[in-house]
Amino acid sequence: MCESGSAFAEAQASMPRPAPGAAADPIALEPVDEVEIVTLVDNVYDALLTSDERTHRAGSGAGAVAAPLFEEGRTFTGMVAEHGFAALVTVRRAGRSTTLLFDTGRSRDAMVTNADRLGIDLGDIQGVVLSHGHFDHTGGLAGLAGRRGVRSLPMVLHPLVWTRRRFAVPGREPEELPTLSRRALDAEGFEVVERREPSLLVDGSVLITGEVDRTTEFEHGMPPPHQAWSGSGWAHDPLVLDDQALVVNVRDRGLVVLTGCGHAGAVNIVRHAQRLTGVDRLHALVGGLHLGGPAFEPVIPPTVAALTELAPSLVVPGHCTGWRAQHALAATLPDAWVQGSSGTRYHLSA
């Protein structure tokens, strides 16, 4: 029983919400000719992964540095991997290219270090999108700030990214998470754009979903230890309502969906994108799916089943997906599943 009004409201918010039919305000997402996703930060770096026609790996020769103890006077450092996520998204349409930064990783230096080792100038990006406010997706802003061309960059985010959050695991002292500062971002010159609703960027060819409809019966969000500050106390924050994804429609191929953690649920996110755009076909799903750990492992079978039915051509689960989900997806979707790794480029074209 939910005896208090706040508890009842929380229970209601956690329940799946029906979203029948087409969207009331459908998004006319303009098709693109090509999209390239470069994973700047992921939990894994494997220098022995091989490239193919749609995937280019950084390889073992990335990041040459001076090293006097070697005969050649140098060695290779490879890419930095950490528990975080960051990606560059470049869309090409009608001969024009635009590059956005989607999330920034956990630490100050990993993203900018990997960009330098890949020969990528972060001063060329034209905007920043934050999937949500957790620090393993926003920490790299400290390294990005002050770089050439970064000041006055538009930054699209959900207004709840500023939410104070903590993990209160029974039997342990609660651990408050780092909270992103609006004041600090303003001081660095970022042009912060807060939106709960969907946003269309790059001449209508990139969709930021805004809040995602929770329509499945199995994607319930974060467990009770994940809490948010309400202004008067701490309460369970299952939904992480600031979670949003980036969506592109590749001409004649279908939707490419990029997630940060996928707190809204991978299937919820894909179905939400399909409903908003009216595009049924899922071409690719890339990013964190948050299926790791005991609280989320029961969600793996229905998630894999739903994604199998969607039949994407490419699935690159990264970051917080977890090894059990990786194995399940690799076994069920062997032709689509690709191992993620820091420094990898994914090229998808019409």
TrEMBL record:
It comes from the Bacteria. InterPro entries: DHPS-like_MBL-fold, Metallo-B-lactamas, Metallo-beta-lactamase_dom, RibonucZ/Hydroxyglut_hydro. Pfam families: Lactamase_B (PF00753). SUPFAM superfamilies: Metallo-hydrolase/oxidoreductase. Residues 1-22 are annotated as: Disordered. Residues 95-193 form the Metallo-beta-lactamase domain. This is MBL fold metallo-hydrolase. It comes from Actinomadura chokoriensis.
